[in-house]
Amino acid sequence: MKRRSVLALPLLAATLPLISRAQETWPAKPIRLVVPFAPGTALDIVGRLAAAGASDELNVPIVVENKIGASGTIGTDIVAKAAPDGYTALFTAPAHYINQFVYASLPYHAVQDFKPVTKISNAQLVLVVGKDSPFTSLRQIIEFAKANPNKLRYSSSGLGGTIHLAFSLLNQMADTQIEHVPYTSGGQALTDVIAGHVDVTFTAVATALSHGKAGTLKLLGVSGLQRSRSMPDVPTVAEAALPGFELTSWGGALVRKDVPDAIVKKLNAAFVKVAQSPEFQARLVAVGVEPDLLPTAAFARQIEAEVPKWQHIIELTGAAQTQKS
Predict the structure, then answer these.
(1) Residue 82 vs residues 9, 48, 263: alpha-carbon distances, Å
(2) DSSP conformation letters of 137-193
(3) Segments forming the whole domain that contains residue 46
(4) Are residue 235 and residue 253 in the same domain, yes or no?
(5) Phi, psi torsion values for 114, nearest 5 degrees
(6) What would the pLDDT profile of 179-201 be if each residue is shown by its tens digit?
(7) pTM assigned to the model
(8) How far apart are the first and last CA of the chain?
(9) Is residue 202 part of a domain?
């Protein structure tokens, strides 16, 4: 054995108890939960509700920080570069895994550099048209689109975004050619549907509910396999016209891959306890989000299964690795 290795052994032996003690006493200070999307979004709201509850369980503050930009990659990179001590976590959405197929390069690896902690929620999209639209069902839209290729237009919040993915899947399954009109924000995309400048779009459940009650939008279908608890009278896209159609967006916590499993176990336990609360679940439904708890192992299995699906849909959009990070 080399002298350097012999000298290193006592140092390693002295360090191991310190590492073990740090895991046992975790958390001993505030935890930072990075949300890589804007304040007020459904993901942000769920993250803040989950953080507040988990903070009570762990007896330390969990501070939510919105670090926005580049489809979530800026905030994600902050977590990727943080110390692997469990005091910085990411609360994110499928965009975390989708971005690797959209961007030519990223400063981190979405799969290899992170591991799942807990899935908290599932958010559906709602297919909507303006109040003056001649369409009252998805089937009518599909029939018109088949007879009139590229005559209908849908708006989205940008290339490779969730709405773009949803319509790419819809066009493939329905064998239609509804034209894409990308905007710089979801708000602008929706405004032009309300005004009648664009024919159709998908939007968040809470947004659709608000405009549906105001009479400014007609709600034609939700994007999950089950109807939304927030709007039980609105059919799913699958039952309205396209059996098997599903595109939803989860909200869940991830950490760096090298955060100790003992810490991940504690953080998961706190999130699970919160997510099982009927009061917490009711608050999610109130903002148009479905409670959908998956602890660490089950969440990891879901991610492993869905990443190839996201890759396939991105390839349908033509947006594969076209963007610069």
Answers:
(1) 27, 20, 15
(2) SHHHHHHHHHHSTTTSEEEESSTTSHHHHHHHHHHHHHT--PEEEE-SSHHHHHHHH
(3) 30-122+248-317
(4) no
(5) -135, 160
(6) 999 988 888 999 999 999 999 99
(7) 0.86
(8) 46
(9) yes
